[in-house]
Design goal:
Elements: H1 8-19, E1 32-35, H2 42-56, E2 60-65, H3 74-90, H4 95-104, H5 130-141, E3 145-150, H6 159-175, E4 185-191, H7 194-202, E5 212-215, H8 221-233, H9 242-251, H10 256-269, H11 276-301, H12 304-314, E6 320-321, H13 326-336, H14 342-354, E7 358-362, E8 365-368, H15 371-383
Parallel strand pairs: 1-4, 1-5, 2-3, 3-4
Antiparallel strand pairs: 6-8, 7-8
């Protein structure tokens, strides 16, 4: 039995929407941004499901993980990955070229691709632009080119990264609107910092403003069934029911590692005479609270005003508005125990955004980044008699 849980149907559906979109999905060609908290399976899905599905549909896929080397400028990582792909296309015996030939049934000649620019100049000042390079790839391969940038929010931490996103937008605009284009350029960005990923498509000063931004589709009961089946084959038991384990998985923020941790504690450290369906929810609740406490401690470390702002947003059902209003400042003053001026609020809110504790959903509209952290916070307020 495989150690990796695969989601081929979801991947095939996404590949179809990206490469052969209906009229309702054609907007995805402006860019697709997937956001989800870390350790929910995003990278595993990209590598083992989505990329193979895109390649099976004939696309040329370039993948870059900006988390793989946080010390290197994000723009350099992306340029390096693109140049490596171009280099492979220039090599007749390369596995990438052979794969493309097999998928597309194309004959690119004995010498592979031929580019009218110096490979090492791509993306550099005075050299070939990304728009020129990617346009030539699309035209010669006669296929779609998909660039996936994992942890894309790192790109906006430097001026070079912001320029890179503008260059990728220029490539999209140079390739996709052509009436007879033999392929399209599709950009996919994923990230665990939901606040920053959301802003990549919401703020007017961002290259991909207006592109599609959606939550990463987290794992569901099918994954729980897969995991319990694996444990049963490994001889572990007694196991909890699928419904109870699925509820525990949701309680743990749909994080596979956390569910495995809970099941490990259940199967190795709990009394054998105890009902697993009674024990697992208790274990999951404890682990859930501990994980949320780590995030809530970050709020406390930012100071009393940060706690007051977080309090206002977390206590709101749905999106919170008026975070910077005079009314809100008066509310903060009561909680902090001193007068809070309106101009003090924005810098502290920015610190909460930078820590990925809150996220901007629109102009003047905020929410808590992690729903289950918000739930824990509310539960603690009820226990303290504040709600």
């Amino acid at each position: 039995m495989s150690d990796i849980y695969l989601r081929p149907q979801l991947a095939a559906q996404m590949a179809q929407q990206l490469l052969k979109p209906t009229g309702l999905d054609v907007g995805l060609r402006s860019g697709l941004f997937l956001s989800g908290l870390r350790r929910t399976g995003k990278t595993t899905f990209l590598r083992n499901d989505l990329i193979p599905a895109l390649e099976a549909a004939g696309a040329l896929v370039i993948y870059v993980d900006l988390w793989s080397d946080t010390q290197t400028n994000p723009a350099k990582l992306v340029h390096s990955a693109i140049r490596k792909t171009l280099e492979d296309l220039l090599t007749p015996a390369s596995s990438l070229l052979e794969k493309l030939k097999c998928i597309k049934g194309a004959d690119f000649g004995a010498f592979g691709f031929k580019f009218g620019f110096k490979l090492e100049s791509v993306g550099l000042e005075g050299g070939a632009t990304l728009a020129e390079a990617l346009t030539e790839v699309v035209d010669q391969a006669k296929t779609d080119v998909v660039l996936i940038v994992d942890e894309v929010q790192h790109a906006i931490t430097t001026d070079e990264g912001n320029q890179l996103l503008l260059a990728l937008k220029a490539a999209r605009d140079a390739i996709n609107p052509r009436p007879a284009t033999p392929g399209h350029f599709v950009f996919i960005g994923t990230g665990s910092h939901r606040a920053m990923v959301s802003e990549l498509t919401a703020r007017r000063n961002q290259a991909f403003v207006g592109a599609t931004s959606v939550p990463y589709p987290v794992l569901d009961e099918d994954f729980v069934r897969f995991l319990l089946t694996r444990l049963e084959k490994d001889g572990f038991g007694p196991l909890p029911s699928i419904s109870v384990a699925a509820e525990a998985f949701k309680m743990l923020g749909s994080r596979p590692e956390e569910l495995i941790r809970a099941l490990r504690q259940l199967l190795l450290n709990s009394p054998k005479d105890k009902n697993p369906d009674e024990m697992l929810p208790l274990i999951a609740s404890t682990l859930r609270s501990a994980a949320a406490d780590v995030e809530l401690t970050k709020v406390e470390e930012l100071g009393s005003l940060a706690q007051a702002i977080f309090d206002r947003i977390a206590s709101t059902d749905g999106d919170a508005r008026g975070v910077f209003s005079t009314e809100a400042a008066a509310e903060y003053s009561k909680l902090v125990g001193r007068e809070v001026r309106v101009e003090e609020v924005q810098p502290v809110a920015n610190e909460l955004l930078a820590a990925n504790l809150i996220m901007r959903r629109g102009h003047g509209i905020y929410g808590i980044t992690d729903p289950f952290v918000q739930e824990i916070w509310r539960e603690k307020q009820i226990m303290l008699g504040k709600s």
